[in-house]
Structure prediction request, 436 residues.
Amino acid sequence: MKSRIKIAIMLFVFNIICALSNIPESVEAIPLTLTPPSNSVFIYESKEYKCSEEEASQKQAGGNEFRYDYKVPWIDIKEFIKPEHKAQGFIDLYVVFFATNSNKSLLQPVWILYGDTDNRDDYDFRAYCDGKVYDMIDPDLKGPWYTQVAPANGNYSSGQYATLRFAVPAQIEHEYKIYLGRDNITMPTAPADNLKGTFYQCLIYTPVTSTAPIANAIVKNIAAKYEVVWVKNQYGNYVRKIDDPKYEVMANVPIVFDGSKSMAPAEGAVLTSYQWDFNDGTIETKAVPEITHTFANPGTYKIKLTVTDNFLVSSTNEGSNQVSKGNYSLPLYVNVIDQAPSVNLYQNGPNPFDTTKNKTTKIQYDLPAKSQVEIKIFTLTGRLVKTLLNEEVNPGSWEVKWDGTNDSGNKVATGVYIYSLKAGSQVQTKNLVLIK
Prediction:
């Protein structure tokens, strides 16, 4: 009993000595409670990074661990992506950086954002969703790594935030993971006296979605095509930009446009009107989301859909990849051509088709003329698995989907399959891999 009392007294005295001596090794990081960006939802906080005295004496801003670590390393944010994000085609993320010390005092180190390279390297902002890569789409933030892209002038202060816009698909089945580079969130070198004993941390928020209607327009049964172009950003650097999706359709062929993914998020609101402006002199208003239109002349057309709810609140899909231009849903472009150059069957996607991660795989094809079309799935031995299509199809670029089942509705086994396109007298085949 006496030995236990002696140990307790020794521990008590030691703790008093540590407190009076302010021993650096005994001080732990105290998380700082910041006021979050207004109307936002908290998503993620990185671990805390401490700048050692040695690193501070060498004026290494933030310390080596902070500079070279992956601060947001493939974080799954699927639970924060709402139907509104899918309808507008993107989600905005607020990146907050701050520094504090053991006394819970907010320090004021400056910080900046280095360029999003789009090179699929350590310095490329991107998201991974169900087997596909989706980009940070704001061209103002793209550029070579080690080139400042935000803020446009000067620096951010501790607690200020940058906004990143990421493309979001219409469906998310399993995951949506974001990656924000290796040293893209960084600091210029700061005076040593401001670094000793400093803790650094990154926080991620997303703005609360609006209750205003959201207009979402697609071309039914036609796959969107993406064109990669090189553009000059605000800093004079040429960067890769994935252009807005375009649908390729045929002139003088009826095309079905679909606005059924549009939304009226406000409580008690329902969409009552769909106004379509086809940018060829035709404007039509319907009470239902689908409409059929025929373009007479080749060219690129920006299709405007304006939806209105029962409270007479309207919204149009005139948004942009750029955060600076607001948060309306992304526009729809249609590229009208005279005729497809030839019958063409494309490789399915995704391939391999992992049925544990994706509900369907898409098969796209081109037709230069109206034809009787058959698309079928076979085993490698030639046994018919499923008929996906057997009907007359207008000229154009089209797609069908396969869900990995046979004609009886049963899931097929893992393996390599053949899919074929027969259009008139022409037949084309390709292989696909299915993983069950």
